């Protein structure tokens, strides 16, 4: 799929020429298309999909709820609110948007932890349900804040903000790919160490405590890693809707159990596929990847809700 993203488009790129460019040869026009434009997009798509997939699966496994993802519990909207705040009150600068989006996501997580009491000992189900409910309420408040901020912007700035909030890979560069790569290099090993504790945490707070696991500290560490993965990615690509929500359940359907590595792969495939479809589906219009992921995620969410309702009825 990376090869398809690099070769397919307007104009089409000959695979032989693409290989020559990747080998270091300078070919006028083709070098820019392959090396400076399409390949960074493909790399950012893969890295963003991995980050969203791992983040969503962490939330869904920790909270024992397939509907729990950064999109649903307000983390993505927190990062978006931070970015829109930067666009409203700070000079138009990519770094300001990046840092404000990251801080917005982390600040949302801190508020979630504080209000839900996820950092305190308690019954696992009560804490998890409270965290999701607080997140949904916080997401509604953040959505209202974003709408208000958009009314403060000029028409052009509001249009730019709306385009960013859809989620797009069109501004991907090697610098942004490096930011995501460095973040994943630090966060993925941390998550791998915490997943072992997450398996114990799934046995219940009392059992985990009896086995010597510091439950509140472990829960907070998992949430912070998941939030940082999501917020960093939103800061780079914008909020690609439903990627974090889709990756975990699809991986679970394929593997028959929760699988973090498979969720990372599924997330990368979703983002790449969404970008390929968005760039080539309509002959005269290029759709941002966030439009396609939103179109994929909405019916999947309805299917998940219907399935949960049917399961709950005992049929």
From TrEMBL:
Protein family: Belongs to the binding-protein-dependent transport system permease family. FecCD subfamily.
Single GO molecular function: transmembrane transporter activity
Report how it sits in the membrane: Multi-pass membrane protein
Keyword annotations for this protein? Cell membrane, Membrane, Transmembrane, Transmembrane helix, Transport
Record keyword Transferase present: no
Gene Ontology CC, one term: plasma membrane
Taxonomic lineage from the root = Bacteria, Bacillati, Actinomycetota, Actinomycetes, Micrococcales
The organism of origin for this protein = Brachybacterium saurashtrense
Q: Name one GO biological process term.
A: siderophore-iron import into cell
| Stored InterPro entries | ABC_BtuC-like (IPR037294), ABC_transptr_permease_BtuC (IPR000522)
Spell out the Pfam families in the cross-references. FecCD
Q: What is this protein called?
A: Iron ABC transporter permease
């Amino acid at each position: 799929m990376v090869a398809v993203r690099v070769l397919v488009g307007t104009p089409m790129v000959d695979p032989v020429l693409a290989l020559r460019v990747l080998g270091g040869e300078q070919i006028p026009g083709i070098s820019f298309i392959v090396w400076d434009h399409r390949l960074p997009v493909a790399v950012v798509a893969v890295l963003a999909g991995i980050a969203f997939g791992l983040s969503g699966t962490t939330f869904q496994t920790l909270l024992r709820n397939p509907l729990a993802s950064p999109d649903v519990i307000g983390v993505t909207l927190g990062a978006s609110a931070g970015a829109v705040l930067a666009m409203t009150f700070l000079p138009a600068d990519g770094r300001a948007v990046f840092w404000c989006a990251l801080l917005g996501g982390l600040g949302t997580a801190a508020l979630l932890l504080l209000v839900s009491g996820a950092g305190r000992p308690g019954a696992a189900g009560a804490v998890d349900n409270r965290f999701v409910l607080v997140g949904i309420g916080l997401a509604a408040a953040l959505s209202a804040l974003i709408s208000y901020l958009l009314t403060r912007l000029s028409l052009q700035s509001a249009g730019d903000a709306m385009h960013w909030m859809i989620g797009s890979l069109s501004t991907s560069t090697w610098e942004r790919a490096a930011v995501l790569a460095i973040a994943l290099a630090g966060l993925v090993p941390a998550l791998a160490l915490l997943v072992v504790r997450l398996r114990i945490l799934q046995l219940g707070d009392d059992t985990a405590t009896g086995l010597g696991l510091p439950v509140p500290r472990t829960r907070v560490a998992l949430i912070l890693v998941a939030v940082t993965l999501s917020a960093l990615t939103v800061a780079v690509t914008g909020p690609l809707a439903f990627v974090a929500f889709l990756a975990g359940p699809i991986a679970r359907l394929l593997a028959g159990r929760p699988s973090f590595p498979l969720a990372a792969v599924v997330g990368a495939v979703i983002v790449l596929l969404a970008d390929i479809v968005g760039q080539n589906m309509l002959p005269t219009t290029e759709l941002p990847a966030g439009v396609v992921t939103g179109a994929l995620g909405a019916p999947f969410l309805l299917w998940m809700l219907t399935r949960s309702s049917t399961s709950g009825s005992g049929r």
